[in-house]
Amino acid sequence: MDEVLTTREMAEADRLAMAGGASGPALMDRAGAAVADAVCRRRPAGARAMVVCGPGNNGGDGFVAARVLAARGYRVELFLLGSRDALKGDAAQAAARWSGAARPLTEAQPAAADVVVDALFGAGLARDLDGEALAAVERINASGTPVVAVDVPSGLDGDTGRVRGAAVRASETVTFFRLKPGHLLYPGRRLCGPVRVADIGIPESVLEAIRPQTRRNGPSVFGDAFRAPDEEGHKYGRGHALVVSGGVEATGAPRLAARCALRIGAGLVTVASPSDALAVHAAALTAVMVRRADTPADLAALLADRRRNAVALGPALGVGAETRERVATALRSGAHVVLDADALTSFEGEADALAGLVGERPERGVVVTPHTGEFARLCRGRADIGEAESKLAAARAAAAALGVVVVLKGPDTVVAAPDGRAAINANGTPWLGTAGSGDSLTGMTAGLLAQSVPAYEAACAAVWLHAEAGARIGPGLIAEDLSEALPAVLREYFAGQGA
Ligand SMILES: NC(=O)C1=CN([C@@H]2O[C@H](COP(=O)(O)OP(=O)(O)OC[C@H]3O[C@@H](n4cnc5c(N)ncnc54)[C@H](OP(=O)(O)O)[C@@H]3O)[C@@H](O)[C@H]2O)[C@@H](O)CC1
Ligand SMILES: [K+]
């Protein structure tokens, strides 16, 4: 159920279902009935339901919903953009079975209704809203009347999560078969309200042909790759993560990362520290070890021990040539690498230089974890990435260009792999936007890489577990809580696997 389909893939699912014997009107009947069910959960029979229909099949779903609601005793008024005669195909059939009037959309007064069904545009939205449609959406949003959106709120682009001119603010959205990217990517996610995925009779088997590349992030994405340690294992079997620290005034971030690397299951974790910060780290760390590393050559020496199989650089490391050199050292070692914050900003506008270093050892996993600002700096000058149509497309383009797994952070974090796979995260909480939260994510990623979880799955697991930990703490969350919340999160996660 975690596959996410683009509008094109959804049309393909529809086509394959029909090729397999499903009928278009039957699919539309189930879609419209699912929308009617949502209205019924929200308002009792007798309520005034206003259905606004567009000229395509989204409007067709609206006609079905109107018919079902009227049969269940709702007082239904239906308004149509365009003329009834102009409807085609399944929508025309659905309209023919609606015995009530279809009044001009300009007459729709949503403030007078108890609930609105928004069936103006769905997957077929082709341009920015204007004219009558725009005015109707503005009236709906101003009315304060609850809105059930059909497939997507009208005006929201289902592929990108972006608004085309204006979009309905829905109280809930009923979509069909699978989620679309626009349900998960902001601002779309906010405009949808809670999203219900209705089964309309499209068989699961169509996915074998479509092979969707996008998923909602969760254990279905990474569960096979991240399992509980086996009973006979020992700490050396769970890898050794190295976290590179900056100077004495910047030791908190690497310690947060190191503790998270250990909590998530790395067998050993070491902070590589410059001499001036050694004493601070030594006083503050117990299970995490400390080693001196003043220069990139010192880092190379530490990484020459191949048991140190994952390294994290970035948090509070400082921006500049020295950090670039450390990144190059890490990327030339045999270790898996996580790059965050200053390690990425040190390559501002030089994504190609970073890609060159990554390309020297393509067998090893590299994950970068920028927030939006760091991402924009890193990819400056790359129009193919900067002008991508969505956050999802941008992360994918960057992953392909850099040859790394990209974790593009935010309330709708996207994880993308160079091979095109991508996952959109949706279990977070705004409380995760706090100092040190990103450092913790970096550490979790390093800890998973140390356990030999492949880079894409490691990144997806880290993002999901980090969000899960944050959501559990909620209000008052500080970064120190994240590592401490992990044991309970992990216990449940492994229990869910039957481990
Ligand atoms: N696929 C499936 O499995 C199933 C799909 N189902 C349903 O079908 C929906 C997709 O239907 P769809 O393809 O007919 O597109 P839809 O969203 O109705 O819009 C197209 C119409 O709008 C028009 N139009 C576009 N933009 C406009 C604008 N800015 N301003 C004004 N007009 C604009 C466009 O006009 P044109 O661009 O041709 O001028 C065209 O007439 C999907 O969301 C779901 O609800 C279900 O029944 C279950 C099975
Ligand atoms: K809609």
TrEMBL record:
Q: Which reaction does it catalyse?
A: (6S)-NADPHX + ADP = AMP + phosphate + NADPH + H(+); (6S)-NADHX + ADP = AMP + phosphate + NADH + H(+); (6R)-NADHX = (6S)-NADHX; (6R)-NADPHX = (6S)-NADPHX
- Where do the YjeF N-terminal domain residues begin and end? 10-208
List of residues binding K(+)? N58, D118, S154
Q: List the InterPro entries.
A: CARKD, Nnr, Ribokinase-like, YjeF_N_dom, YjeF_N_dom_sf
Co-factor: note: Binds 1 potassium ion per subunit.
Q: Which UniProt keywords apply?
A: ATP-binding, Isomerase, Lyase, Metal-binding, Multifunctional enzyme, NAD, NADP, Nucleotide-binding, Potassium
One Pfam family from the record: Carb_kinase
Query: What EC identifiers does the entry list?
Result: 4.2.1.136, 5.1.99.6
Name the residues that bind (6S)-NADPHX.
Answer: 57-61, 122-128, 151, 253, 371, 439
Which GO annotations describe the biological process of this protein? Answer: metabolite repair; nicotinamide nucleotide metabolic process
Per UniProt, AMP binds at K409, G410, P411, D412, T413, G438
> What role is this protein assigned?
Bifunctional enzyme that catalyzes the epimerization of the S- and R-forms of NAD(P)HX and the dehydration of the S-form of NAD(P)HX at the expense of ADP, which is converted to AMP. This allows the repair of both epimers of NAD(P)HX, a damaged form of NAD(P)H that is a result of enzymatic or heat-dependent hydration. Catalyzes the epimerization of the S- and R-forms of NAD(P)HX, a damaged form of NAD(P)H that is a result of enzymatic or heat-dependent hydration. This is a prerequisite for the S-specific NAD(P)H-hydrate dehydratase to allow the repair of both epimers of NAD(P)HX.
Assembly, in brief, is:
Homotetramer.
Q: What's this protein's family per the entry?
A: Belongs to the NnrE/AIBP family.
What name appears for this protein in its UniProt entry? Bifunctional NAD(P)H-hydrate repair enzyme
Species the sequence originates in: Alsobacter soli
Q: Which gene encodes it?
A: nnrE
